[in-house]
Amino acid sequence: MTAATYDVLGIGNAIFDILVRTDDAFLAQHGMAKGSMALIDEARAAAVYQAMGPATEMSGGSAANTIFGVAGFGAKAAYVGKVKDDQIGRMYTHDIRAANVAFTTAAATDGPATGCSYILVTPDGERTMNTYLGAAQDLSPADIDPAQIAASSIVYLEGYLWDPANAKEAFLKASKIAHDNKRSVALTLSDAFCVGRYRDEFLDLIRTGTVDLVFANETELASLYQTEDFDKALGQLRNDAQLAVVTRSEKGCVVAAKDKVTAVPAYPVKQVVDTTGAGDLFAAGFLFGLVRGLGHEQCGRLGALAAAEVIQHIGARPQTSLKALAQAAGLPV
Questions:
Q1: How far apart are CA 79 and CA 96, in angstroms?
Q2: Model confidence over 129-154: pLDDT tens digits?
Q3: Residue 222 parent element (H or E)
Q4: Alpha carbon 293 to chain centroid distance?
Q5: Pairing of strands 253-257, 261-264
Q6: Kindly report the CA angle at 149 between 320 and 307, in degrees rounded to 5?
Q7: Per-residue pLDDT reduced to its tens digit, 78-116
Q8: Residues in domain Carbohydrate kinase PfkB (predicted)?
Q9: Range 4-13+60-112+133-327 has CATH code 1.20.840.10
């Protein structure tokens, strides 16, 4: 197998984040399910934006956040996602390239605007997302470069890709190319409501080996197996998946392999400000550890470190060097 050009390549919905602090009453007033990600149309997006208070705006998107983090640890990273050639799309492209991430997906010249997610953050740090996919939904198999996929050690895919039909086909094309070239494929389940929409299809991806590594949190795991019994659901996941990681907020995470389960504690934080991107950054640390050949416990610690950084401020991307944080914590980078 030839040496990889990239350690991790992510494929996802390229979304610009608009974040605002709010309260539970605002969510109730606007019919939002706290902690969820809802897909909205352009009219709803405009209405939500108008009702929101002063906002923080920055590039986002689940897989893109993860890839941003992977690069922040010092790995070679690439990203595939669709923006439009508009002002926000050009900002998005600048931001991800400035983070030393290879991003060559052609921008759309017509059709809907670059996608945006309107994220409401309540005082407890929980985030509620209202996402207008926009140009992201037009990601297609034609945007998948076989040579780039073949040159990536791990291809990382987000469950949100299962919403747009074209993106689903791109997802499957990338997985096949990766496996044909003896590369690994990772999937994050993204959101419990997303799992609810595509449960059978996600289970099929896991059971057939279309994905080699699965990331989930407790609510996504419960949705996947339709049980609140964590141990029972974890047992089913171990039976189905080659390797899986389940994050458990302040309880840390468990890495579920066929032969054993490794529990890793959460990294201590002073205050939870905004949980947006916690799972994305956890995946970044874990994937970085994997491509560096570290054991599951060390991978989990790197993931916990990255997640702890991002939940202590507004926004889903690190504001401190992850590599420096890992070095200060005595973790290998």
A1: 8
A2: 999 999 999 999 999 999 999 999 99
A3: helix 218-225
A4: 21
A5: antiparallel
A6: 25
A7: 999 999 999 999 999 999 999 999 999 999 999 999 999
A8: 58-318
A9: no
